[in-house]
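Step 1: inspect the first sequence and its tokens.
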Amino acid sequence: MLSQRMVSARLRRYTAPLLTGPVGVLLVALGSAAGLWYAPFAVGVLGGAAGAVRRTRLPARLGLAALSGAAGWALLLGWRALTGQPVGATAETIAALAGLPSSAALAVAATLLVAVLQALAGCAAGWALLPAARLAAADPAPAATAPASVRPTSSDLRLTSSEQAS
């Protein structure tokens, strides 16, 4: 039987990604809709920093950041296509100007790939911004002993008068 403490720890462990994922997607979509093309990077930085503080592993954070970046841009592009904006025609034009085959799917895939790369770079940067939290996650109980290369001196070995009396 699981104790209340174990259930609570498992609940926090699995609900944090379930809550931060959709929030990251919405932040990327809203930021990109506002013209902030670097929104996946910013959300990645926040996710990486939160992962360092919460002491989660970097691969889990990277996966969540990549998902947030791609899904956020895909949500925005899908919304614009549903509202009648010429997303496909714009993507074909961009692909042709970039020297790629005139394919809307290829341009959209390249856009989503750039969003994923931005989010991954941001997550790694956010993880690196908090080295103390990252080191605490790697080694939760640092050793309190002196290094092996330090040898006691003769003054350390002398007993004081109070120690000699006992």
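Step 2: inspect the second sequence and its tokens, then contrast the two.
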Amino acid sequence: MGVDAAFENPYTLNQNEISTMKDNTFNTSLVIEHKGQNINFSSQTSYQKNYQYYEDPIDADFSPLDGISIINNYGKDWNNVKVATQEFRFSSPSGPGRDLEWTAGTYMFYQESPVKQATHFGEDAPLLGSEEINYSLINTSEGTNKGIAFFGQLNYQVLEKIGVIAGLRYDHEYKKQSVLGEYQPDTDAQPLFEYQSDSSATASFKAFSPKAKSYLQFFRKESALFYLQPWISGRRPYPLECRSFPATFN
């Protein structure tokens, strides 16, 4: 398709392999709250699952050539991301005459990300730079991420319009990921060899994040507050990056 033809037919793709994407998402959550005279309690539980794939191979070279296509329909064990979170929170009741208020709790999460996708090279693959035809490069990665955090905060009203806030959060997180690249000819039911050996890495970190600040209240509580002297320290790094290997084979 030339430039003139492209402008005459805008928003039109030239593909010889089309497919339907299935995007199945499931979300659920449960919240439990209790408010007492001396203590409040809340629990928040959530779970999410996302299963996304193409029913059939989909064209990846955007041309009528039997060149490159993408395959990722490998069953529910793959491309099915799952995440679960849980928070427990305790706090003091708020109200008139309470100069000291506090909040404490814990947060936990768990995530699984199994991904499997193949880049298929067809009969016309040499026209797109490949030396071979009718084969797939299968890229597989599996990731696990889990962590727990503890947090606490104190709010103290020093005077009628002056207060201080102090808090602390502790995080512990663990990450694991493995990657694998395989070569599979169309004539074989199983991959022939690995072009990227199965490798995995793990990483974990711990972090303290303290904070403190004082504030001066100029107006009533329904109006804006002006805060003074904030101080926050600590960070939450992510030492292990999600990695995948490009579909190249020499």
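Step 3: confirm your contrast with the notes below.
DSSP finds one helix and ten strands in the chain. The beta strands are 21-35, 40-54, 58-59, 68-71, 80-91, 100-121, 135-157, 162-185, 193-216, 226-232.
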